[in-house]
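User: Predict the complex with zinc ion.
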Amino acid sequence: MKLADIIREVQNLDDMTQQRLLSYLQNALEVSIHSKEPLIEEIAERKNEKGFSCPHCQANNAVRFGKYQTKVGSKSINRQRYKCKNCSKTFTDLTNTPLNKTRKLDKWLKFIECMIEGHSLRKSAELIGDVSWVTLFYWRHKILSALEQIPTDKFSGIVEMDETYFLYSEKGKRNIIGREPRERGGTSDKRGISYDQVCVLVARDRQKITLSTVLGKGRIVKKKLDMKIGSLLSAENILCTDSWRAFSSYAKEKKVEHYRFKSDGKIRVMKGIYHIQNVNNYHSRLKRWMNRFNGVASKYLEHYLAWFRFIEIEGFTNSIKNLKHMMVTSCLYPIQETNRLLRTSKFIL
Ligand SMILES: [Zn+2]
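Assistant: Here is the predicted structure with zinc ion placed in the model:
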């Protein structure tokens, strides 16, 4: 088809389809421009807003210390190296970021796109090309180690809080003694909430500030609850929870007003505004989204929660703005994870 034919075809499209085509082209073209260099300058500017900041000792008095050469795709590029005047160590803009020492820097933005879409590793490897899904496994978890560190703001006003459960899984680990590995999530053979279930707490205020975090195996323990949410709550908050006892005694201890909703669903709203429907809807969306992974290893569950939290705020949209935001943000929180550490990590209670 010739360009003139394509233009004629485009002119025949209705307004809405033309709009969709336009935003598709804008995205596609801008991605191809930026895929050569994943935003290193922007990352450096954000990281060094208070002076060149050392990833080893966090002092802000590093100086530029020569250049080094690196390859991006087939191109050779000169990059800045720094030296810290405090600890004398050298570093680059990518030290302790997911991008550190990667040999395929030109593929990362495309991978971020796949993460916003929620594609599996195999599907992502197919779409990106020339990179294995095993490599992408490490990319994924390095990015998520960073995103997991984004602090949660303090809650204001009404806070809905409820727990949900994921079946404990050691997916990926071979030869588990005593039972078959539960690859696909599976069902527990024990009744009710047992030690086989991993408890995830979700708390969300009406500004949509959201805490979602793993509390551990089995039922909620008050001490654990306080450890995770205590610093985000104040006496001005009003808690809405289900009728689970741990929540009740916790609310009393924190001296916060508390509304409880029994699981029989007879009373769903009190006084017109108190309910736990936002948090329950969040559970459903989270579970529906998680289904695509066919069960995840419990030791990585915290990562998946951070992933969902991030892209849910971005509205699951693969816009250039969101791509950049996710790439840059994941380089602002220093990570210590190496491939080996990721492989050998364990589920910690
Ligand atoms: Zn230093």
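The first helix runs from residue 3 to 11.
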